[in-house]
Hints:
- This protein is of the alpha/beta class and 145 residues long.
- It has a single domain, classed as Dehydroquinase, class II (Rossmann fold), CATH 3.40.50.9100.
- 39% of the residues lie in helices and 18% in strands.
- It has helices at 19-22, 27-41, 53-62, 82-91, 128-144; strands at 2-7, 44-49, 69-73, 95-99, 121-124.
- Strands 2-1-3-4-5 form a five-stranded parallel β-sheet, covered by helices on one side.
- It starts with a strand and ends with a helix.
- Bound molecules: 1,3,4-trihydroxy-5-OXO-cyclohexanecarboxylic acid.
- The site of 1,3,4-trihydroxy-5-OXO-cyclohexanecarboxylic acid has 10 residues, from loops.
Amino acid sequence: MRIALLHGPNLDRLGAREPEIYGSLTLAEIDARVVELGRELGAEVAPFQSNFEGAFLDHVATLPAAVDGIVINPAAWTHTSVALRDSLAATGLPFVEVHLSNVSAREEFRKHSYLSDLAIGVVYGFGVESYLLGLRGLHSHLTAT
Length: 145
Ligand code: DQA
């Protein structure tokens, strides 16, 4: 089983970026934890981050040939990007949307996601655990189907 782990804009700055909201782990530390859980579950996890929406969409387009499912923190594109929604839909792959913070308890604009209704599930508010729970959910989904 192969899983893509996708991170949207500004997540490369985790650790330094608003740690009171996003925690103190760096992106590399989050990737390491998700890769390690993947290993325990028998899944190979392939991380990718970009601040460039076009580069991100180009990467998403390669995924149907490469992976069985996606764990994605779309970051700000969650709330803005029809293009990312269309790109994920076009893959036909199951995906889980995750967020470090509780997006329902923040600004109004963070309460809307262009992706959630296409996702097999959404996990938010648990910091790095959101990613780990998301991976477990996706793994169960792929094992059952
Ligand atoms: C985020 C929440 C988004 O609203 C925000 O734009 C981010 C990070 C999170 O993980 O909590 O960049 O996706």
